[in-house]
Write the structure tokens for this entry.
Amino acid sequence: MAVELFDLRGGSNTNPAANAPAASTRWSGLDRLGRLKCRLFNSFRMNYRVTPGIYAVGTPNGGSPVLVTSNYKLSFDLLRRELSGIPAWILVLDTRGINVWCAAGKGSFGTEELIQRIRSTRLPEIVEHRKIVLPQLGAPGVQAHIVKERTGFSVEYGPVHAGDLPAYLRSGHKATAQMRRVRFGFRERLDLTPMEIVPALKAFGIFLAAVFILLGLQPAGILFRSALRNGLPIAILGAAALLAGTFLTPLLLPWIPFRSFALKGFLIGGLTTAALVFFIPAQALQSVFLQAFSLVLFPAVSSYLALQFTGSTTFTSISGVKKELKFGLPLYIAAGAIASALLLFYKLEEWGIVS
Amino acid sequence: MKYLANVVTLELFPERCTGCGRCLEVCPREVFANNGKTVRIVDRDRCIECGACMMNCSHGAIQVNPGVGCAAAIINGLIRGGEPECGCGASGTSESSCC
């Protein structure tokens, strides 16, 4: 399958254009599987890369446009897929496998790398014009005027989304206001939720173990029956809080009141927890202490998890997230401490030490 | 969607602005608008502090403390006692979740 992508043409030729590997505009089954795995597995996603350098799409010539992207393979794949019938050069920067926007924020999709890559690929010998098209979201890392000064290439910032590239190229490199806007709809948010849920599941495993041990703990030892009877409703509440923060809040984001992610997550987690605490007909949940434990802990958990989604969105700022954390972190720690105390009181009550 | 009100560090110095319009081009959030000979900020609260405008303004007319609005990165920075760092891209084998 990789042959389709890295079809190296005659290696002995010193012409840099002739040495550019061909990039297909079609996706193989492996490419589709790769995208799916990127959405699910962090370790896979972090190592999904193409070799930096110049690639040929179709049969480009000296007048064909040069499109710059990152070496995260999914970014490269999304770009080449849109270029069906459009001969072009793709210049892949070494961003250590990170997508354009994040890499621009870190500076690896940046001025220096772009200048070095233009030189090392001998781009001035490949094309006759002196223009390169960068994705607009690469702009936080690139100083266009410095690139122009040092390489002679003028940087044009193209559309945000690769899907708009054909229209942009056809219109003589004019980006409409629509093309300059970041879209972050229901579909985009849905795509990102697994990356929220999967990391949270690791912590959930530890939570489950703690719940079953603590709630199963009796003067006679850890009893399986009481662990199951009392632990199960709490485990369900925990799972609900996890989904409230990592799935429901991200998905329903625009329709939940408040601008703060912490408050959005708290509201959804609070509603979910309250509904379950009063509707699950479990004996354990008749205890005021366990009710209070749940109502203190789980909305805070959901709020914390919702706050993690700030990094996946397209409209948060570092100053805003810092402000949320400044208020939120002390409250999360307090909620954890109060919940622990309430759990202790529940156990004392259960064992008849306090009535 | 808009994030918190009155938090961003974005500043525009109109006296240095030549009205070249590069910031209008790179801003993904339509924060700026053309104001005849210079640009003006139409909606500060839309700004995400990505830094694209400042990086691409060759006249130094825009100032912003750029960063990524990512809670995981900021918490990571607090724990390690340094700058916000999401961990990805450093070694390529990082397990931390990010952008």
Notes: Chain A has two domains: 2-183, 187-350. Chain A touches chain B through 60 residues (CB under 8 Å). Chain A has 15 helices and seven strands.
